[in-house]
TrEMBL record:
InterPro entries: Ald_DH/histidinol_DH, Ald_DH_C, Ald_DH_CS_CYS, Ald_DH_N, Aldehyde_DH_dom, MeMal-semiAld_DH. Residues 47-511 form the Aldehyde dehydrogenase domain. Pfam families: Aldedh (PF00171). GO terms for biological process: brown fat cell differentiation; L-valine catabolic process; thymine catabolic process. Its EC number is 1.2.1.27. It comes from the Eukaryota. NCBIfam families: MMSDH (TIGR01722). Belongs to the aldehyde dehydrogenase family. Keywords: NAD, Oxidoreductase. PROSITE patterns: ALDEHYDE_DEHYDR_CYS. GO terms for molecular function: methylmalonate-semialdehyde dehydrogenase (acylating, NAD) activity. This is Methylmalonate-semialdehyde/malonate-semialdehyde dehydrogenase [acylating], mitochondrial. It is an enzyme of class 1 (oxidoreductase).
Amino acid sequence: MAAVLAAAAVRARILQVSSKVNSSWHPASSFSSSSVPTVKLFIGGKFIESKSDKWIDIHNPATNELIGRVPQATKAEMDAAVSSCKRAFPAWADTSILSRQQVLLRYQQLIKENLKEIAKLITLEQGKTLADAEGDVFRGLQVVEHACSVTSLMLGETMPSITKDMDLYSYRLPLGVCAGIAPFNFPAMIPLWMFPMAMVCGNTFLMKPSERVPGATMLLAKLLQDSGAPDGTLNVIHGQHEAVNFICDHPDIKAISFVGSNQAGEYIFERGSRHGKRVQANMGAKNHGVVMPDANKENTLNQLVGAAFGAAGQRCMALSTAILVGEAKKWLPELVERAKNLRVNAGDQPGADLGPLISPQAKERVCNLIDSGTKEGASILLDGRNIKVKGYENGNFVGPTIISNVKPNMTCYKEEIFGPVLVVLETDTLDEAIKIVNDNPYGNGTAIFTTNGATARKYSHLVDVGQVGVNVPIPVPLPMFSFTGSRSSFRGDTNFYGKQGIQFYTQLKTITSQWKEEDATLSSPAVVMPTMGR
Ligand SMILES: *[C@@H]1O[C@H](CO)[C@@H](O)[C@H](O)[C@H]1NC(C)=O
Ligand SMILES: *[C@@H]1O[C@H](CO)[C@@H](O)[C@H](O)[C@H]1NC(C)=O
């Protein structure tokens, strides 16, 4: 009964729609030079100031100015967040699927209306260009739109009359409290891969955004609340290692979605699994673009440059390695020319093609990897290490960099660089190129550029990578499919979003029932309209 009443309250809450964000609450808008704004926790439907004595500074990557502080939530606050998720779960799971769908339908509308606002926060905290930040929100929005089709996605299966009077059917049911740990490179898209799918299935969710870029998640949480999601169905905490360990260990958390580095992913997979949780972990990558000499040259060079240097290379799907096959080697000078023409600037400046890296440490790491190329015998054809961006001299900028004559045993090939650096290898044949790609431990994405269908077919068939593009440089699947990274790029057994996403966030209950025909109530047809109380 309590659950029924609570579900009714949820429904009443869902029907109140508020549409516009009051922009006075989030970190960027409250910024003034005298006071550094603090990022709030979102617990039980309230944005609350943390009582923590440990705070992390947030810097604008284009200037390194301090723009905010984010707390490392205390144990008590994290406990309160999980309890809130746990309390909200029974009523939310009992809320009809149509009502949950309504919340998501309103949510996709509110995200659309506030897309530019979210993108501005991303550019401020993460550094990517505004256009790219809008793309970040848009790709997440597509997952929200897909989550709206939950009524089809969550269908179970039935097998009638397996024996006399006996039927078998299965339901998909939510797991309980699920948690997400997101990286810094896609502040909107990746959180949106997680909580909307989990919640539309009836789970409640604990989100830990990257402590470097929390703003977008906070705004997304506000918009979800405005869409009618009941208090406690989504809670947001902040922090680093302690928060991660807390999530891996807490007995009330049933599943963890993680995207980020290999080291963290392996750790979370091991630690979470040991505590009996489902874990899906999307991790590092080294994505190869194989260029055949029969490719459309114009198109291929543009695609390569965009996919290698866009978002300053801080995409796990960045095409960071080119393999030029045969005569395609001759295109290298033109590739360099195109890369040179890209405009490096602060993300909010008009015309910027790529912005800064996330932090001074990231810049140093990328520069060291470029140095290693020189030391190990590669050639730097274009060097972005000493770039100066006018007006932004303190930013973490690295310009487009191209390293050629790279061999598979070099450090710059083996490590994921995560910066605007394209390493170029050369082979004589397609078979050699395939061997290189398959020998690499990562299997996130790959692309082949060719005008020959048979070559494309052969490559797609033989390459052991989860996502393949044919003349498409960044083959991130749309949400009706799943994000299918493989080998060292993924741990777990069900991928993000699409049908696999629904499987990850639900469990099956199978019912075998027998209703004997002879037990059917014998009643003579009622010819008179039944009257209550007779
Ligand atoms: C692959 O790329 C995506 C998107 O950039 C990233 O989030 C993810 O961590 C990477 N790895 C896998 C296996 O998906
Ligand atoms: C890579 O292998 C070649 C040939 O086996 C060798 O000469 C070279 O020193 C190696 N380079 C590195 C960086 O290990």
